[in-house]
Write a structure and sequence with these properties.
Elements: E1 8-18, E2 21-27, E3 39-42, E4 45-52, E5 57-62, H1 64-69, E6 80-85, E7 104-113, E8 118-123, H2 128-131, E9 142-145, E10 148-151, E11 159-164, H3 166-171, E12 182-187, H4 189-198
Antiparallel strand pairs: 1-2, 1-6, 2-5, 3-4, 3-6, 4-5, 7-8, 7-12, 8-11, 9-10, 9-12
Length: about 200
Amino acid sequence: MFSGIVEGTGRVVRIEREGDNINFRIACDFCDELKIDQSVSHNGVCLTVVKLHGDGTYTVTAVQETLDRSNLGFLAEGDEVNLERSMMMNGRLDGHIVQGHVDQRAVCTRVTELDGSWNFKFEYELDPAMARKGYVTVEKGSVAVNGVSLTVCNSGTNSFEVAIIPYTYEHTNFHAIKEGTAVNIEFDIIGKYLAKMMEFNR
């Protein structure tokens, strides 16, 4: 489980396909603190550390289901990914409850630079059946975009906007997002639970 507070970015240094899976070798500043079997969020996707290389890099594996739902399959060597280690239960929940289970991709349709911040608009494919199960955004609710915990504004039927402050813009891969960029989104788990419980009250 994660909080959506990105620790930093890593760099993809090698991509190797193995059957339907892809192995990503990642370089990051806290690699020496990682352990085999540890969970790390990569652009919001929870992946398991399977190998430590001793040179500041480690390897994780993404299966086909993960590649189909996320933007990991679009990564190239040299790309930045947002990283977050799993949440410690004795710490503060500064973001919101993020499982690291990406629901689907969204596409950036507009970036507006404001006076000291940026506004990003994203659109996603709406599945009415999934929407009834809580796979939607709500005004002033929470959403994880590439693993970043954000507050929704201008929530539409299949779109939403987020405001990005300079710190987030500089310390995550939001500075690389432009119109047409595919991002990972995870809808709020609390909304999914509420929608599920409502099924039994109809």
